[in-house]
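Long-time lurker. I teach an intro course on protein structure, and each term I like to show students one example going from raw sequence to a predicted 3D structure in token notation. This year I'd like something fresh instead of my usual example. Would anyone be willing to generate the tokens for the chain below so I can use it in lecture? Attribution to the forum is fine with me.
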Amino acid sequence: MKVIQVKHAQEGGKQAFAQLKEAMDKGITTLGLATGSTPVTLYQEMVTSALDFSHLTSVNLDEYVGLSGENPQSYRYFMNEHLFNKKPFKETFVPNGQAKDLDEECARYNDIIAQHPIDLQVLGIGRNGHIGFNEPGTSFDVQTHVVALTDSTIEANKRYFDSIEEVPTHALSMGIASILKSKQIILMAFGKEKAAAVAKMIEGPVTEQLPASVLQTHPNVIVIVDEQAASELTK
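-- Reply from a regular --
Happy to contribute to a lecture. Here you go:
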């Protein structure tokens, strides 16, 4: 893992954008994208840049079960608002949270990933070390799957909803095995609340109880952290 420490999230977005531009210069065709507050600064850099993404395909990590793409809290809506409506891509894939058969949707999404191998995957990290919605205890061998969200993840997401009762309890998520197939990974983490997870991810043992720790086994990972998120690192 290469760790890049920055002062704040805005600088982190610029660093991630520089890595993306370098990858694009090398001819990548598929981006793996994430939602949530962490990658927003990267998307802002992409939107205000002169770069053209219309030849690229994007494959998103996850989506809530039960929400349509028109729901303002869905991840499809998030991506449209923060990136796709402003910078068109060739194709954009997000799991269908309203699929009648969720197992069938997982299989469909695995096929999409197989047909569009991810050159550069953008990740955040949860306070409990999750990547995508792969919660602690998730097998490193799993592909796209249905996830029952933990209480801590539901609690963290409630700020986006009017009440905690409205927060979805399940999601569709690209699996850890799928994420590890990406040729390059950029993980971004900002804020003191991420510090413990970041330290365990980089310096702790590789364990399914801290899903992000598996990134230690990947040959090309860049971790971009602000001073607060890096505050518990010892090296």
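Some talking points for your students: The CA atoms of residues 9 and 27 lie 27 Å apart. The mean pLDDT is 95.
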